[in-house]
Structures are given as C-alpha cells and as structure tokens.
Write a structure and sequence with these properties.
The chain is 24% helix and 22% strand. The protein is of the alpha/beta class. α2 links the parallel β9 and β10. The structure holds zinc ion (ZN). The site of zinc ion (ZN) has 9 residues, from loops. GO terms for molecular function: oxidoreductase activity; zinc ion binding.
Amino acid sequence: MTGPPIPSTMFAWRKYKGNQEPVYEEIPVPPTPATGFLVKILAAGGKVYIDSPHIIPALSPFPPELDFVIPGHEGCGEIVRVGSEVQDSKHKLGDIVAIYAVPGCGSKDCPECGRDLPHLCRIGEHHGIGQDGSFADYIAIDARAAVALPKGVSPAEGAVATDAGTTAYSAIVKRGKITKDQTVVLFGLGGLGFNALQVILWIGARVIISDTRESTLEEAAKLGVPRKDIVPVGKSVQEFIKENGLEDKIDTVADFVGKTQTFSDAQNIVRYGGTLLYVGTLSNYTTVDAKICIKKRLTVVFNYGGQYEDVVEVLDLIAKKVVRPQVETGSFKDFPKIVQDLHEGKVKSRMALLPSHT
Ligand SMILES: [Zn+2]
C-alpha cells in the first residue's frame, strides 16, 4: 500500500519571528520521516501564541534558530505515508492517530527519555512548541508520537486529549496521586481544569470547586458536583472552608489557575501533611509561605504535560465517556479571528480547528 496521492504543497499557519499575527500560506508538504509518518491533519488545537507570556516561560520564547514556525501542539490526523525504517509499528497506513506532541528524542541514553520523561526532553521533538505543529494540512511525526484514536472519539476530542486531557490526567492520577478517600479543592475550570474535575469524579474523591465564571460552575453541577461543594463566585475560599467546617479536611489543593491568590489560599486551606498540586501558570511567580508550608509539612507537586501512557489512558476515558473534553471547533481559515475571540474571552472551552480539506 502506498497511500493516497499527496500534493506537493499545503496550506499552513505560520508565526514569523517578531510578528504577532499568524500568516496563512502555501508551503511544501514536509517529507515523510524515515522513522515516522506523514499525517494528514483532521483537527488541531493548542497554544496559538508561541511567543506569548501565557505559556511556560522556558518554552515560550520564539526558538532563536528559527525565523518561523507552525504552531499547534494538539493534533489528530490520518497516517498517509509510512517511513521506510518504521518496523513493527503499532500503526499502519490509514489509521487515525492522536499526536503526542512531546515524544522527545527517544534515546535510552537521554537523561529524560531514559527515565520515560520524554515530555521533559530538551533535545527531542516538541511539535507546536518550538517545532512545526498541527495548524497545517500535513505534519511529519516520529512513530513514537502516534497514539491510536479509540473508536467513538472524534478527531477534535483526540487533538485536545493530547494536552488538555493528558496534562489534567497526569496531574490528578500520576503526580497528585488523588485517591477515592480524599477531599480535594480544585481551582479553575478552564479546558484543563474541567477535564481534571471529571477525572477526580471518576476516581470518586470529594471535590470542592472554585471558579470565577457562574456558567462554568453550573456545568460542573450538571456533572454531579453537589451545590454545597461549589464555592460561590466572589466568595473567599478561605472563608468558605471555615464556614463549612472543612478546616483540617482538605487533603489536596489542585491549582489549575496558578495566581498568587490561589496559591496563597491553597497553603492556608490544605490540611497538615497535605499536598499542593500546581498546574496553572497565570502568575509566573507566586509566594511560598515557608512558615506555613514547613509547619504543616506540605508536599508541593508540579506537573507539566504527561507521558505517552497518559495519552493512551485519557483517550480510553474519553472513549468510555467518563471524560468529555469541552471542545469547540472552528475552521483553520478563521484562526486570527479565533485568536481574537480567545483574547476577548469569547471562547469558553478549548478550540480545535479543522482544516479546509476535512
Ligand atoms: Zn530525550
């Protein structure tokens, strides 16, 4: 099998160094990597501002060696070419795969990949984060980046599962080790936080939620969060905890906001011996109150992304409808307008863009 005909050129969004506006242009289709696949994109999502301060500072500067890059670190598509050196692959021509954006270099000698932490690899692949991503008709990926899309999962869901789903899952299950008998406070119900909420409900822990948007809290109530466990908008979380007799009961605070205020609240409301799980990065710097943290003997855990297995596991939860990622879809061509809408707060969940050929 050779696959469908591939055009010589494709359309892609590119960000040029020093230019905030993305440019939609016709460029060559990338060659099929010998150890990977050429994938026809069916849905793409992710950070749209590669040089935005909203992403992790270490990754956010425009790569110095590049003049332009295709953004989009969440992708899903069809394998249309298989590299000449791909052997015994789990995937074949025509398969639909979610794209794990951070498969790393894959070397067992790599200080990170050797410990199964490819997402922390400093030399390997990071699609859409300093290397070409999914806002294009085609993407070239290594075989290690392909994750089979389970039946019943849409390409848009598959795309956002690779980060918004995986990061939330990894944070709650692997890093936070949240268990059924715990009481958790969750700050922030954006794209990641809402997925995290569903994972916590699946685990069976009690979860108290706080967000600044009434409509989002209503959606959480529909998922089964009792009204008594929803901090009213505008209410001080510390007061809510006191008034509801929850002092000394909060095992873990999962902070998907990451502001100075939420981190301060977290240190104050968590019980002695508890855990602060830190995922959001709205403030680059927050303050550790050493007296509180030492006296309470707290554990502070950070999370960034997730491992390949986390993508597989969260896709399984999506297939089982345990996690229903909030995702809105739009057209590739509307990318600049969608960026504008994101800035103006008109997009309430995660966006996945569908290329014109779909
Ligand atoms: Zn590596």
